[in-house]
Amino acid sequence: MDDAPRPAAPRHLEPAELQALDAHWRAANYLAVGQIYLLANPLLAEPLRPEHVKPRLLGHWGTTPGLNLVYTHLNRVIRARALDALCVWGPGHGGPAVLANSWLDGTYSDTYPDVSRDRSGMAKLFRQFSFPGGVPSHVAPETPGSIHEGGELGYSLTHAYGAAFDTPGLVVTCVIGDGEAETGPLAASWHANKFLDPVHDGAVLPVLHLNGYKIANPAVLARLPQDELDALLRGYGHNPIHVTGDDPAAVHDAMAAALDQALDRIADIQRRARSEEVRDRPRWPAIVLRTPKGWTGPHEVDGVPVEGTWRAHQVPLSEVRENPDHLRQLEAWLRSYRPDELFDAAGRPRPEVLAYIPEGARRLGASPHANGGLLLRELPVPPLDRYAVKVERPGTALHEPTRVLGGLLAAVMAATAERRDFRVVGPDETASNRLDALYTATGKAWQAETLDTDEHLARDGRVMEVLSEHLCQGWLEGYLLTGRHGLFASYEAFAHVVDSMVNQHIKWLRTARRLPWRRPIASLNYLLTSHVWRQDHNGFSHQDPGFVDHILDKSPEVVRVYLPPDANTLLSVADHALRSRDYVNVIVAGKQPGFDWLTLDEARAHCARGVGSWTWAGTEDGSREPDVVLACAGDVPTLETLAAAGLLRHHLPELAVRVVNVVDMTRLLPRDAHPHGMPDFEYDAVFTRDRPVIFAYHGYPWLIHRLAYRRAGHQHLHVRGYKEEGTTTTPFDMVVRNDLDRYRLVMDVVDRVPGLAVRAVALRQAMADARTRHHAWIRAHGTDLPEVADWTWPG
């Protein structure tokens, strides 16, 4: 193939084509400026007066004309080629452009009938923008045709690839702003083309929009010479096509040629791959679009240049109500688009403006791929009893919970082999996390070079591994938002890499749930394993359980956190999460061998409750309240709690001990703070109002206090958890270092049950001595005490 860098050959649009495309572009520009500035007088039917202008001018003009150009030309090729298309709009606050274009193509009025495609609707479109009770200045869930929140930069290209996976008929254009292109996630996203299968996936067409500046500084890629930028993009595996200019007619010609050239190339790549003529990794096209920042806006304001500079980034004319010169300039700017040629007296777009608008669901604002719930199908999760482990007696047999889950996930992967709507993503850890049963059903997606020593790589694989949590997150978000299902498996400590990304997804879901036209999508499911308590190879650097804290700070109607204590509860929780809609589910589970506590039926009942007393583990007889409650959440804390309960059963048989396990962390919240929260009467029945509660928790102990601080018995709550004491050491030494071990929990019971400190002084001393013996033993032998390593439930 010819890989030499080249600009787009001018297409030489026919005069009527050029006139219609330019009319649409001018109309979109006019509508965008109107959204930023106008409160009234939308068609300039009278001279512009200060009261026609919004009192607070908010919005971003600089990127808007370029986005309008892309939208205009996408309309043409979608209509001409009958394309199924989606566009991801990356530049941050590009809302005016996408809102203007969806109003022009009719999808905005279809979605919001009160914003009609006439003078009245135009006035509402203008007034609502960045106005109290209105819509945001960026592309948001409220925007028809969007799957990408434009408020935070860096994720557009990975979202676009996520949307393209397993949609072979879809072309996803992704407009990347030159400021966004400087972010780490976007830089990593250029590697996503090595995972795109031209046979089973759609295509992604990146449009790198270089207008020169960010808010106040030049953009790095915009200042690279064209040959250097071309070499960079070619090194990423793209064949770039350059469109540069500021003369509208010339740029229209070049943009039309660039899109035709790119789409011809995409069609050829897919045809050759799908006919098995060529299976080498293709060099996909990309468009580099260089136009001035704030193109067609004011050239100068107050004697300083604006168009083509950073000053055009937001509001070029900022004192329109106070400064008559600014008001005159704004009116001249609006009239420069010749609105009387674009809209009739009733404010309806003239036929020429709409000449290249696609029809029906092919309109970018109406694509069902941008409202993924319309396409979502139930996931075929098989019956759990095929994969559950048998439990004859609690705490006597061991299984690796995530390996058990891997069997279930492999079955789901196999059941979706034809429909291809389920993927598992993770940063190079699928086998490490004991999920390698997946490879019996599919391989790992890979389009780059393969060697004889490689394992499980497949061009059509649906396990996605790349050592970038940002890419994993973005791929899965794009995949879910376009109507599919998936799971993100990660080492617990490094889920923090995507803290900010999950924030944005939670905000998206929260907003989308309030929009009746947005259909529910499959939940974003995290499996956090290789967790804080078992880092035998890695140590302190891999120990951080705080992702749960981060999630539980977010919108309560969206977030859920589960800590299943064994293999069967993990199956039950995963079954629920995979079937759920519009949530972010965080599941924390170990991959190392752990005790089986509950049968599948018991696990289902326990998970349905979310929290419950394990009567078989305690010593209360129901005749009175317990003397103490031993509570736990997480697999290792559960083990230590039950071991402590066993010690108390042996040494203090007269003590009434209640053992409570928490699977659903949000159950600890009050009902008015979270839909899963327990009402006070239920919480009091489980934890009591006045008895000491010794709570062994998987993560940072203050989270439990925060969740329960409004409860009546909070002053009696004592929490043990991770307190930043870690290293590469034995499993039991980790809990000892953090005072979460069974011996410390028994000491806490002795210290906190009234009157017990005097009666059980010998027991407390024996527990302290056991901790001392532990320290000496591991330094001498490198393994845990036999009484710990060989422990089983004694009940």
From TrEMBL:
What cofactor is this protein dependent on? thiamine diphosphate
Q: What is its EC number?
A: 4.1.2.-
UniProt keyword annotations, A-Z: Lyase, Thiamine pyrophosphate
Segments forming domain Xylulose 5-phosphate/Fructose 6-phosphate phosphoketolase C-terminal:
591-793
Stretches assigned to the Xylulose 5-phosphate/Fructose 6-phosphate phosphoketolase N-terminal domain: 14-374
Output the superkingdom of the source species. Bacteria
- Bilayer-crossing regions: none
One Pfam family of this protein, by short name? Answer: XFP
Q: Which InterPro entries match?
A: Phosphoketolase, THDP-binding, Transketo_C/PFOR_II, Xul5P/Fru6P_PKetolase, Xul5P/Fru6P_PKetolase_C, Xul5P/Fru6P_PKetolase_CS, Xul5P/Fru6P_PKetolase_N, Xul5P/Fru6P_PKetolase_ThDP_BS
CDD domains for this protein: TPP_PK
Give the family per the record: Belongs to the XFP family.
Could you tell me what this protein is called? Probable phosphoketolase
Q: Which organism is it from?
A: Streptomyces celluloflavus
